[in-house]
């Protein structure tokens, strides 16, 4: 069985003076990422590895999750930045088969579309939302539309 953990980056600044790629997390984003990662650690859905867009806000979010989940630093995949759902599907189907549970840290709207594509679950994916999708397969290349089941969903509510 494969598990894909979709993680949207935490709240980033919208202040002027930053290129989109270089937008840092806000204090709220730093806090939310730590809390949501801590809640994920309490479940049976802890990833074995993370992959992330190379944008500053996603790498920063991935770093916080890595620290709280005792993981190695996230691998950066350029195709996740400015991806559409087809790009993300391509990334997922090329993930290493020897790893059963992988967290993908990225951006909306593509993450929300990917969640719906794989599971049929239409959820809002606010900043720092986490969605775990299980697939009844042993190879990433076999995941297809509606082949997954949403088994966990969380976001920074009431923090």
UniProtKB/TrEMBL annotation:
InterPro entries named among the record's database cross-references: His_Pase_superF_clade-1 (IPR013078), His_PPase_superfam (IPR029033)
Domain of life assignment: Bacteria
Residues making up the signal peptide according to the UniProt record: none
Pfam families: His_Phos_1
Name listed for the protein in its UniProt record: Phosphohistidine phosphatase
